From TrEMBL:
The keyword ATP-binding does not apply. It is an enzyme of class 2 (transferase). Residues 7-162 form the N-acetyltransferase domain. SUPFAM superfamilies: Acyl-CoA N-acyltransferases (Nat) (SSF55729). InterPro entries: Acyl_CoA_acyltransferase, Bact_Acetyltransf, GNAT_dom. This is GNAT family N-acetyltransferase. The keyword Electron transport does not apply. PANTHER family: AMINOALKYLPHOSPHONATE N-ACETYLTRANSFERASE-RELATED-RELATED. Keywords: Acyltransferase, Transferase. One of its GO terms (molecular function) is acyltransferase activity. It holds the Pfam family Acetyltransf_1.
Amino acid sequence: MGANDAWLIRSAKTGDGADLASLVPDPDRRAWRLRNADEARETLLVAELDSHVIGAVSIRWNGGCDAPNPWIYGGEVLPNQRRKGIGTSLWQEAHRLCRNRGARATSLDVDVTNAGARRLYERLGYVVVGPHEHRWVGRDSETAAVIAQGTADTWLMRCALPAEDD
């Protein structure tokens, strides 16, 4: 997978749970994302520096909010590691994996108040499709029972994926 002089982008491993705590503080959400990755429903990518996870992003292959496109979500980089290209590297690897699985586009949503993330996504080729009421569900990591739910006002964004040689 992707690498540069400082960090490595790779698929998450079950043992990454403790390192992911800084990026995904809710233990049930963290366990859910790791389980979905272990069961191949999703791919969880991490950025690693000096054997520590410093960034992460997930790809939901089915059941996203803009079918049939893979849904990219949960992108986070530790605050002291931001503005170094780590988020861009995570997204580039996510896009490569999506292309390899035949996707022609990817989708995501971003909170309407998160101008910084929206700028990053626009630099990566995403365009706003329109407003989107994101429905979120919190689940117990052991039973999958719904323990919380709600909505958030977001922008739905989509990125066309050029062929690898474009």
